Amino acid sequence: MDEARHEARVRGGQAKATAVRLEKLLPDVLRQSMTVTLRAMRAVEAKTLEPARGQAIAALTTSLTRQYLAGVQVERLTDLEAMLTAKNGAGALDTPEDEEGGDDVA
Questions:
Q1: So what's the pLDDT on residue 92?
Q2: What are phi and psi of 30, to 5 degrees?
């Protein structure tokens, strides 16, 4: 019984946990975009879609992904700044130039 259970566990768990985790990390719009891009890639391979159109779809997907990642970075930075300010008080993120007066433009 132990051997059968082990075999079933090995068969059933191949790459599924990772795929599920990764899928949860992607927002719906990127998941849809990846689906369209993969479909276009297959169509280019099958010669049912012009390579230029496939390339255009891939470029749009890349742009969308970069915009999403930039937004994630801004959100993370904002959270870190808020944590530092809460921990160290107001002005915790001021630079030495801010304290000295810096290069004020009048």
A1: 61
A2: -75, -35
Q: Enter the tokens of residue 37.
A: 């891009």
Nearest to 71 by CA among 34, 35, 27: 27
Instruction: Assign 3-class secondary structure to the chain.
Output: CHHHHHHHHHHHCCCHHHHHHHHHHCCHHHHHHHHHHHHHHHHHHCCCCCHHHHHHHHHHHHHHHHHHHHHHHHHHHHHHHHHHHHHHCCCCCCCHHHHHCCCCCC
Q: For residue 34, count other CB atoms closer than 10 A to its CB.
A: 15
C-beta of residue 69 within 8 angstroms of C-beta of residue 61: no
Structure tokens at 75: 């959100």
- What global pTM score does this model have? 0.59
The per-residue pLDDT of the chain, averaged, comes to 81
For residue 66, the model assigns a pLDDT of 94
